[in-house]
Task: inverse folding
């Protein structure tokens, strides 16, 4: 396999951006990259990588560490915090996907993710609420899908974008923790994944505005129980 150089990475970013904006065809973009020595399959992956990052979508084919960091930096420079949020959401989904699919850790990619996460004033640790997924329920392909739901609901970028859109009131009962408990309840809310866990696969890509919704823990538990009841009936 040909080594992917930094020059190839940088050129593929520009091609990927032009392809996303419909300023170049995929065929012509791949031609440019293969002319500078890039393998055709790698060229396709790197071109599509920009589209996934800028939209916050899961990508399943990996890029090298330089490519990962270069893309995040350029997107941050060109699109600011909003663009970086999408890119980090995309990268975090890729990390979850890759680790679940391969069974191996991607330590360096996580380090890059955490470093850029600090630029948007987010903590690298994910918020953990033990009751968010019922550990007693056995789902089809249970482990993988429970990992996915946990990841999506706790992902700091997905949570932030969801809450920015809907606010901190429970979308079922309208309860607000800060109004009730003051500073103790400030910015506290669960985030529920609306799509039934049994219907998704590991290549599913989360959309924080359509797939997630802020709810209080009580309503969250009832929504999960409702989904379980529907599955049992079917």
Result:
């Amino acid at each position: 396999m040909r080594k992917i150089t930094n020059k190839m990475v940088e050129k593929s970013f520009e091609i990927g951006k032009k392809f996303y904006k419909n300023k170049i065809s995929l065929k012509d973009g791949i031609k440019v990259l293969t002319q500078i020595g890039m393998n055709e399959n790698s060229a396709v992956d790197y071109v599509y990588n920009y589209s996934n990052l800028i939209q916050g979508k899961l990508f399943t084919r990996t890029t090298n560490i330089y490519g990962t960091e270069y893309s995040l930096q350029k997107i941050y420079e060109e699109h600011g915090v909003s663009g970086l949020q999408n890119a980090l959401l995309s990268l975090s989904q890729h990390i979850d996907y890759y680790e679940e699919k391969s069974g191996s850790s991607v330590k360096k990619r996580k380090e890059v993710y955490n470093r850029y996460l600090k630029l948007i004033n987010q903590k690298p640790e994910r918020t953990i609420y033990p009751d968010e997924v019922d550990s007693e329920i056995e789902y089809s392909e249970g482990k993988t899908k429970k990992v996915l739901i946990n990841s999506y609901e706790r992902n700091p970028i997905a949570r932030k974008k969801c809450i920015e859109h809907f606010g901190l009131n429970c979308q079922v009962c309208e309860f607000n923790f800060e109004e009730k408990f003051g500073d103790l309840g400030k910015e506290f809310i669960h985030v529920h994944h609306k799509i039934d866990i049994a219907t998704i696969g590991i290549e599913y890509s989360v959309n924080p505005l359509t797939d997630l919704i802020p709810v209080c823990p009580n309503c969250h538990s009832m929504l999960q129980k409702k989904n379980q009841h529907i599955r049992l009936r079917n």
About this structure: The longest strand covers residues 190-193. The mean pLDDT is 85.
